[in-house]
Amino acid sequence: MTKARHLIIFDVDGTLVDSQNDIVAAMTAAFSGVGATVPSRHEVLSIVGLSLDVAMARLAPELETAVRSEMVQGYKDAYVAIRARTGAAISSPLYPGAAQILADLGKAPEYVLGVATGKSRRGLDKLIEAHNLEDVFLTQQVADFHPSKPHPSMLLAAMAETDIGPEHTVMIGDTSYDMEMAQAAGIRAIGVNWGYHDRAKLVGACRIVDRFDELSEELDLLLSAEHE
Q1: Residue 172 contacts residue 8 (beta carbons within 8 Å)
Q2: Percentage helix, strand, coil for the chain under 3-state DSSP, each rounded to 5
Q3: How large is the C-alpha radius of gyration of the chain?
Q4: Widest CA span of the chain, in angstroms?
């Protein structure tokens, strides 16, 4: 009997890579550029995963839309400048164990890997190139072409692209937005406890892992329940 294919979709920032320093620095530049009060590090990290226009609206609801649009561009420009100085592999390193789990899952014929991220196409391409992940993700969903998380558009597109249904799909992420997105798409989710939202916010996760080396076992346990 042929095993069903399973689609494993990863968030990126806070799940696969630790990009918090770049994000905070770019957001600081964006706010400073329009003379607005810079939000705290905690406030900035709380919106990681959202599309930039939605994130700016949450961080600065009192500012006019035109000003927030200027801040979005300021953030993008600052982020590109930061990456040019340091390189994505250094400024946004993979979390310990991330490269190994991607290699292990990628070798398993029953798994198809994807990403669903608030990053732009350009930002994701740079990151994938820096970490030599060009052949890892069959489906790559980015903020350029979808509504912001937690809208399920990215997950629905990933399932359609790979022809794998929600019953065989799992989302892995570090924020409440990832968990809500998975619920909205009718799929299961595994939360990771090393990212930018506290464990208590990962409501809806079927399981929560503290290290990448726990993930394979948790996936096996979760997906084996399909046959019980």
Answers
A1: yes
A2: 50, 15, 35
A3: 17
A4: 63
- The pair of structure tokens assigned to 21 is 């320093």
Question: For residue 111, how many C-alpha atoms fall within 13 Å in the half-sphere facing its CB?
Answer: 21
Q: Are 212 and 95 in contact (CB under 8 A)?
A: yes
- Which of these is catalytic: 13, 22, 174, 178? 13
pLDDT in tens, 140-152: 999 999 999 999 9
Joined together, the tokens standing for residue 50 give 């959202």
Asked about 198 being catalytic, the answer comes back as: no
| N-term to C-term CA, the chain | 16
215's tokens = 């993930």
In this model, does residue 1 exceed pLDDT 70? no
Q: Say which of 11, 22, 174, 178 is annotated catalytic.
A: 11
**pTM to 2 decimal places:** 0.91
> Would residue 11 show up in a list of annotated catalytic residues for this protein?
yes
Q: In whole angstroms, what is the distance from residue 137 CA to residue 147 CA?
A: 21
pLDDT reported for residue 228:
46
Does an H or E element contain 169, and which? strand 169-173
Phi then psi for residue 170, to 5 deg, are -135, 135
Residue type, 207: R
